[in-house]
Design brief:
The protein has 434 residues and is mainly alpha-helical. 72% of the residues lie in helices and 0% in strands. Its main location: membrane.
Amino acid sequence: MADGPELVAPSPSPGGRLKGLLCSCWGYAWALLPLASLAFLYHLRAPLRLYETAVTVTGFINTLTPKFYVALTGTSSLISGLILVFEWCYFKKYGTSFIEQVSVNHLRPLVGANEPGMSSGSFFSSTEDNDTSRQSLSECKVWRNPLNLFRGAEYNRYTWVTGRDPLTYYDMNLSAQDHQTFFTCDTDMLRPSDAVMQKAWRERSPQERVKAAYQALEEYNDCATAYILLAEEEATTISEAERLFQQALRAGESAYKRSQQQQHMSIQHEAQHRRDTNVLVYTKRRLAMCARKLGRIREAVKIMRDLMKEFPLLSMVNIHENLLEALLELQAYADVQAVLAKYDDISLPKSATICYTAALLKARAVSEKFSPETAFRRGLTTAEMNAVEAIHRAVEFNPHVPKFFVTLLAPFTFMLEKIESIMPSGFWHQLTRL
């Protein structure tokens, strides 16, 4: 969950120094390449007859009529239009740009560009691991997981039952970075309890983190982040986690009101208010998730809707995905469609929750009236094609969806198998293979 101590980079080896020297020399060579090219052309100006060639090209350009430029403009516009139509058809079928896919998957590895999504806070054990991670970075996307389970009440229970840890070190590192971003600020050292919690989020051992949380509560009884850590990691049931989150909510609300009144006093007070806002929103969202897991789904929906109205600009925790989860459990499909219409925008980052929920609704809309004989005779309707494309889009976005999520489409198995027989594209085989 938390980052470990800072790693010290080893001293470079002789081979590494030689490699760095060669890289530096190569950089200087690239800088001098234009000058060398000009000198080479100047030296060969007589054998290549550059002056005569330039005069010939200039004369050819001067003889061109306006009709040539009109024809050239029309031809380039036609080619651009054809490319645009091809891009639109490709995007409509696969949900992504063909030119973007070619540039990312084929051109970028040739020029050796790094992916912008690499986090500067990540660290690797060796140079070879770093190179391997950089090569595989373009093949996976890392998105925030707003549906994450509770560490103590759910992940640890899985460990107790199966004897296997469902969380990798990479998962722990990502969550530690999120917690330090959400729950810490520059003024933590001014309050002993916050200073203790700032160290607690960096601890690797769960026992040390829980111990630090109790130490923070000894320093200050209303430390909201200490209650959050205990609710996430020490609580063994959802009911116990909800009780601790209620305590965190009371402490977080009082801290939020105090910092709200003082946020305009200085930059430090503004940062503290931002941190208190994150703590309050996170606590309310987790309370809504507790209510849903305990069967109080309508209460969970109300908390999430109120939270989205109160903090409309705070979208980093993706509360709308928790809302989709609860609305699907209520079978409120019209409300689900309304949420998707607002957040399933082509210009915004997608998620597996949004993609698979959209596929579920589109498949549900056509599955009841689907007839294989009619489909064979007249072909697929627009709505049926939209359902197929939505499933394609979801699988292409995240083909590693667990089986329990894919089984949401189980009522529409018959329709999907028939569509696969009509349009053999392989998506159903890929979907059922997961």
